[in-house]
Amino acid sequence: MSAIILLILGLGGMVAGYLVYSRFIATRIFRLDPDFKTPAHEYEDGVDFVPT
């Protein structure tokens, strides 16, 4: 097998692993939510909590 084929397979595997594993971490580990309100928005009082 030539080196270029191994390089392409290796890079393809790395990209596929990155995409799959990053989605797993976002959903299962960190439980990311697009509707999450930050404390600056949740407790906005104009003095201490001011969203930027």
From TrEMBL:
Claim: Nuclease is one of the keywords in the record: no
Source organism, top-level taxon: Bacteria
Subcellular location: Cell membrane
Gene Ontology CC: plasma membrane
Keyword terms of this UniProt record: Cell membrane, Membrane, Transmembrane, Transmembrane helix
Domain CstA N-terminal: 3-52
Regions that span the bilayer: none
Alphabetized InterPro entries for the sequence: CstA, CstA_N
GO terms, biological process: cellular response to starvation
Annotated membrane topology: Multi-pass membrane protein
Similarity remark: Belongs to the peptide transporter carbon starvation (CstA) (TC 2.A.114) family.
PANTHER family referenced in this protein's UniProt entry, alphabetically: CARBON STARVATION, INNER MEMBRANE PEPTIDE TRANSPORTER
Official protein name in the record: CstA N-terminal domain-containing protein
Native species: Candidatus Halomonas stercoripullorum
